[in-house]
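Budget justification, computational time. The allocation requested in the original proposal was used primarily to generate structure tokens for proteins on the priority list. As evidence of use, we reproduce two of the resulting records. The first is shown immediately below.
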Amino acid sequence: MDILLSLSATMVLAGVMLLIAAAVRLESPGAAIFRQRRAGWRGRAFVMLKFRSMRSDVDPYGGSPHSGADARLTRVGRFLRETSLDELPQLLNVLRGDMSLVGPRPLYERQAAEWDSNQRRRLDVRPGITGYAQAYGRGELPIEDKIEMDLYYVDHQSFWLDARIMVRTVLNMFFRRGDVYEKQYSRDKKHETD
């Protein structure tokens, strides 16, 4: 299902993706596609793809923007983030088998290294372009709550839950529901710079 849907979406959206890539390149120097190592299925590292939304001279592993006013964001990048169009290249990650359409969002390897054995169960499924925590909380939730929601997904994974998450994600995109910017990464102060 992942392969069929992602291949169909890639073919349908190929023109849009080319236009986005051109817009990213025209606005600021650097590659249109941003590549970053993430923790994947069973903890295996992979390179996640996104359209670049920030200037190319910023730390690729720095903290996520907390608002659209972050000076690191480009104008095109701000639009891509706020519409979630920056995630479209991850369709290629799905075709390569690194990701699924639905699953826990892949986090940095250093973040995964801090989890306990229960939290590491979120690596028992492939990471997704969208997930339960993104569909029902997005940037408003700290990582602790997102992990709990991811574990719920791992324990209750089904075709119908995936379908609900995908429908909710599309509604969030079209109606701009939920904040895409992280309000607070963690409730633990030692992680505040993440």
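The second record produced under the same allocation is shown here.
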Amino acid sequence: MKKKKLNLAGYIFIAMVAGILVGLCFIKSPQFTTDYIKPIGTIFINLLKFIVVPIVILSLIDGMISMKDIKKVGSIGWKTILYYTGTTIVAIIIGLSVALIFKGAFPILDTTGAEYSASTSNLMDTIVNIFPSNFWQPLVNATMLQVIVIALLLGAGILLVGDEAKPVVELINSLYKVFMKIMMLIINCSPIGVFCIMVNVVAVNGPKIVGSLAIVLAAAYVGYIIHMLVVYSATIKGIGKSSPVDFFKNMIPAIIFAFTSTSSVATLPLTKECSEKCGANPEYSSFILPLGATVNMDGTAIYMGVATIFIATCYNVELTIAQLVSVIITATLASIGTAGVSGAGMIMLTMVLESVGLPVEGIGLIYGVDKIFDMGRTTLNIVGDASCAVIISKIEERRAAKQKK
């Protein structure tokens, strides 16, 4: 019988455990890991920083170009986007709120010799600073909110030009594929990066960081459950005029498959079947669900909220209200622009951390258990897709019934 090969998530988990064990061996001499092991992890972090800007720009432009058909479906498309955006904003707020409750249990790392502080500004400064005054500067400095605005403007310009922009569309599509391949090459180096980061973190800070992983996972799953049982139940009952109990009961097969496969795209056929049992119109679900698998990432939004507060706490950084608003805006746009591939959530988390000036190397603290995060966030994502299909179908049914009267 042929042995099943270990996947990347398995290698990352092994690297994390190995990093913890090796780090414990160096507790009495942490300077060695800082001088000779941490720099390898720093190279991995630098590669993440390198890829984040082109991936964000190209993925958002590519997504806008591909969504041009939404105009053909009229009110269905706009209602779908409105629902997805609204629930994602609520999701990131839930993620931040839960993380702030758990904050007291998060560790503060020993960062002797290094000072970290989130970028500071008031709310109006944050809003003004979203809009760039220079094309190249945001790209060079990785000012992520401005990078997103540049991508949105370029995407809008391409759509408005129409057929004459076809060569640009082809170039964007090709570049997107190229940078996605580069991103996957970097992600495939994750086990090495995670190992080196964990060795240094454990050697410097001791075993306390290990117990914190269970706490941050618990915080994320509390957020997932609240969003699923409260937000989706409320929208299904209040807007869809349907039974939340029946909805979740019919969704169980898709929920189980999503939890184990950690892929919204792979779960798509089952999500469609289950949502139609819940009352979704097949014609509408054929449009809403594939779109949701691309742009509706409520689970990813909660994950980014929890991870941001956790990393900020570990580096003893206090985020202000303005910075939390910046996280909400960036994480919402990042979750919409998240590519549907394994590991893309980490790339987008890099973007959120950089938007408020937090150290990107903090990703290494939680990336070893990313697979466990992913199981919950993928499940939440597909439930959100299905809830939208059911709600939009019910709205259109009621509108059609009124028109017949």
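A brief technical remark on that second record: The radius of gyration is 22 Å.
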